[in-house]
């Protein structure tokens, strides 16, 4: 691994512990750097709960509702985020593309070396890194998810994730169990592919709970890839692109294909967090084809009752409905789906557009973007509404869906809570919106980042503000930092060979506070990456690149 040296924090090149690591005094730092593929399975080391002033990022977009908002950021404000006092502090160098969102834990206890704030990074080379978030330098530990003789998967003749595939989906952390969970794909010398669920110790990177567990699954059905009335999960045909979801000690995985290369269908598979044993399997297109779950690498969402929400892509939808208005053959391709989180997994409700068959035939699916669940809202009649927001590449519309009654299928109308037609770019949504302070923020392809205010339980039909610049493919998935409802900043990455990190005033997107091209001599520039979701934690912004995580913060 290459280590770049950067001035960081107080101006020192890197922390004292990193210096000791370079000098070979590993024991003095209490570090446990390792890269073994055959680590033992110890009990996880206990980790204290973070103190009240700290903040953890344990899942995609901060929470299971996928709001994209960190409202406990007390360092970065609109007053100090500018090119004079804010910029790139360095890059945590890794061994492959960082398509998964990094995760962050404060005050992690490392035996013999006290507590540290830790940045966890997963790569397409199949590695997981733990870094001291306060010092750009050598990792605290590194673990490869490949078994001896294995390598990362090739791109399976699909350029969506290329040139290699290892860990694409955002991991999830269970602090109480001391584990970070990742799904990784690899290939053995015989050309056989494997997906495995790993639980890695937060302080050592070693495998926990007897892991890893190889992903296998079957489901009754006659759909694509079936044999004698049974669907079989073929690891060569799938990639786990959406982020992992954890609810009540259960890990949920959702599966997309490589491009639209068949045969494939629509899998949801759950596992016990503390045993890694498979709990339940659901296929949303058991007697048809396609219906992959991509959501642009975002993640399925969940409400407080434990219901799961996801959007699958173009695929078979049975327009003949049963008495409960569900697809008669069980095929719900191109659906916004509400799924139970218990065992067995089951489809509770769904919505699909009235022209769903035509959309799937044109590869203009609803599932190119991810869902956002809104907090409880009160409408003009005083009724509390439980809503969700979604968009895809089917048309430039925003669908506002009632989570208590998704609307199902009607060939004559879209029976949903609210539809905002034509408010986004016709190039579609390849990310997800975010929510802060009664505003939904959307960044579609070749479109401005737009703010849609909420009033009376409904989204405004025109944006209250928007950015002066637009965002090329794949658009932008914004993140928000704020201290409660104050000092809101919207962070957005503009993709390109040289990417741009933008910061906007959350109360008016027309006010740009900072962008990484403003500083002289390219001080803040970094390389672009297709799947980029910035996170903000404890005064710093972290952005994945093709070979690193760039970190931005206040310049001291």
Descriptive account of the structure:
With 556 residues, this protein is mainly beta. It has one domain (16-554): Methanol Dehydrogenase, Chain A. The protein is built from 3 helices and 44 strands. The strands form 11 sheets. Strands 1, 37, 38, 39, 40 and 41 form a 6-stranded mixed sheet that branches. Strands 7, 8, 9, 10, 11 and 12 form a 6-stranded antiparallel sheet that branches. Strand 9 and strand 10 (179-187) form a beta hairpin. The longest helix is centred in the first third of the chain and has 7 residues, at 16-22. Residues 1-52 have low confidence and may be disordered.
Short description:
By secondary structure, this protein is mainly β.
Question: Strands, helices and their partners?
Answer:
Elements: H1 16-22, H2 26-29, E1 69-70, E2 86-93, E3 103-110, E4 114-122, E5 127-132, E6 141-144, E7 151-154, E8 164-165, E9 172-174, E10 179-187, E11 193-201, E12 213-214, E13 218-220, E14 226-227, E15 230-232, E16 238-239, E17 245-247, E18 250-254, E19 256-257, E20 267-272, E21 278-283, E22 301-302, E23 308-311, E24 336-339, E25 347-351, H3 356-361, E26 372-373, E27 377-378, E28 384-385, E29 387-390, E30 398-402, E31 418-420, E32 434-436, E33 439-442, E34 447-455, E35 458-459, E36 465-471, E37 479-483, E38 486-494, E39 498-505, E40 508-515, E41 526-527, E42 535-537, E43 540-544, E44 548-554
Parallel strand pairs: 1-37
Antiparallel strand pairs: 2-44, 3-4, 4-5, 5-6, 7-8, 7-10, 9-10, 10-11, 11-12, 13-15, 14-15, 16-19, 17-18, 18-20, 20-21, 22-23, 23-24, 24-25, 26-29, 27-28, 29-30, 30-31, 32-33, 33-34, 34-35, 34-36, 37-38, 38-39, 39-40, 39-41, 42-43, 43-44
